[in-house]
Amino acid sequence: MKRRQVLLNPGPVLVSDRVRNALTRGDICHREEEFSRIQKKVRKMLVEAFAPGDTYTSVVFTGSGTAAMEAALSSVLAEGKTILVINNGVYGERMAHIASIYKFNKIELTYDWKVLPDIAEVEETLKTHPEVQVVALVHHETSTGLINPVKEMGEVSRRYGKVFLLDSISGLGGEELDLAGCNVDICIGSANKCIQGLPGLSFLLLRGQELERMKEIPPRSLYFHVPSQWESQEKGSTPFTPSVPIFYAFEAALEELLEEGVSQRIARYKRASKLLRQGFRELGFRFFLPEELLSNTITSLYLPNGMTYQVLHDRLKEKGFVIYAGQERLKHEVFRVANMGQIAPGELEDFLGCLGAIVAGTKCKL
Q: Which of 232, 259, 286 is the last residue of a domain?
């Protein structure tokens, strides 16, 4: 029996048969009650999983995580105000780029991709720039696997009365995150990473008071205007045609997440990353980041001496394992291994065996 292809990339991830089979539930019209019930249930489960209580609400977009990111950024900033973007990776850069496209007043604090933002510098910036209204940070910087200091950033944002916008696209379901406890006002997420859904849906979790504030800001986009999308979804409708089959799969994935438990899902990912990292150490690989900064789900490793990423990728793919390249400045230096998704420990052990054989120049015994 041919083994399945094991995706060790940070999304799309391997999903369960239950999620995959949900796609075959049949065709329905998105203007009918059948879809309204699914949309309502998905939005309710998102809040139940990640922000229980009545402080937060949710809004879902048909589009990748970047769609929800653009929706949040384009809707959050009042006229004449400034956004402070914390940039220590590709996705911090992406938020800054979106802010520039919208011609926002922007301050960008840029750091090396191997270090955490300097909270003291952030505080000094907020002191000297009272025009800043929004602080934007990436929770899990997927480009390297680094976890940023969400609690500390939330505390300083709250101390100065700023809106705290968090990209947790790769964090939700894989990392501990108390939205209210960390003073997160708006959180960006995606279906196809640690929630183990399929690509094509993204979402925001946001405080009700932030939604009310956004309603006072003139729309800058038709599709990405958060209050318009939310108001339509609250009425059981949708302003545009959504990806109905991906909603089926997202519903199934959220059901699985709640059945497993978010803390248990995080613990499973921790066990998987521990298994992998012990194997990497035994094989002599060097980690790109200090281990205290590593996430539960992505490990960036320096390429073996004398081997290009493409060669390593292709040889592993021949054996059924898909790894991920470094991004931008790191593409010739590192490769990434993600343990998101429905991956069995035995598959991770087989991957380590193949990786070791390839580096040693011997035959992978699979």
A: 259
